[in-house]
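Hi P.,

Sorry for the delay on this. The queue was packed all week, but I finally got your sequence through. Input first:
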Amino acid sequence: MSIGLSFLGGAGTVTGSKYALEHRGNANHDSRLLVDCGLFQGFKALRLKNWAPFPFAPRGIKSVVLTHAHLDHSGYLPLLVKHGFAGPIHCSEATAALCGILWPDAGHLQEKDAEFANRHGFSKHKPALPLYDEEDARKALKQLAPMPFDQDERLPDGAAVRLRRAGHILGASTVELRWSGLTIVFSGDIGRYNDATMVDPVSIDKADYLLVESTYGDRRHDKRDPGEALAEIVGATISHGGTVVIPSFAVGRAQSLMFYFQQLKAHGRLSNVPIFLDSPMAEDVSDIFCRDSKDQKLPAVQCRLACAVAHYVRSAEESKALTANPMPKVIISASGMATGGRVVHHLKEYAPDPKNTILFAGFQAGGTRGAAMMAGADSIKIHGHYVPVRAAVRNLDMLSAHADVDEILRWLHGFKAPPRMTFITHGEPAAADALRHRIEEELGWPCTVPDHGQKCELT
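Then the structure:
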């Protein structure tokens, strides 16, 4: 008997994380499960993979295990359920709570984007359709099966799974899967050490096979204090009468940003600068963030103070009024890579003016508007039209929720013995190969960078 491992996403790219494991016993007792089931984002060639037929019948999958709630790890699941998957979706309690916000929001945004494209006629598809809608997402939520950290859970196919905190966002997990005598570990997205708001990633001491992320496998984060960097950029922009637009992930990054702004204001800095959080989803996530005392470091009182630093913008009318308001200010709005959501409307207004700043706060995947602006694009396409980019464009990568290469190596040093094979995943080609080289040189471990669609036999 053996276990087949297939890389259905997260190979050669940072999006679409999706790994299939198949226990191959006799012909009548094969069993299949997935670890993560995310959406492809970024380049069009990747996004089109979301529309391709699934490699095998979803109804034949016994269960899914999620590392965390970000859509590049979980966002395909409503479509999988829509196409017949009926098994449990195992995840941490915080991940289940966040999916309850993210999935319906993703379905709703897809419906609205399709309606907007059809109304204005800029889509090549007639009619434009959502990948799934809000109702599909809410149906999928019924299959979530929350489980505690650091305890074994028996899956329907006989495998045992244990989740450990990964520190990336609330509920983020490293998955240890034991099946047919093998231990397979999936790092998920590894968080930062000594982060201001999130817990440190928990080490694991053994695995027969390891899949490790490599988002920042070829670089180190800036060591500057994030608060100081924020104060410098925001202060300079406001002094020139400009507005700072921060495309931000609603889960994790928005809450970290509010923490740093609250700390600055508490010390008398940026005291007259209004901060707006224009993301209803981020507001809902902030409520979960302040209720969760185990996955993050902030005491309840400090957490509430941080989340109260911003003026919350709920309605679309309020958002439009904010866009039109010339007052110098900070706008934090989703999405973090400027791929959709309310932030694109703010970019249409503020990107053309050189007195403004577009401030990113983490990794920008290839093919996204964020990556294009960081690469110096003089215009970006929004709603079928090109918008000039004359505002300053900056990125505070030290605010990233992903470990940098040194922090990944620190986590790997927790293993007491080398895995039989380490698969470098969830990274663009240069980053994945750089991490492979460091692991081979510094740890002496056998490792490889798998291709999309590659299948391996684990014995």
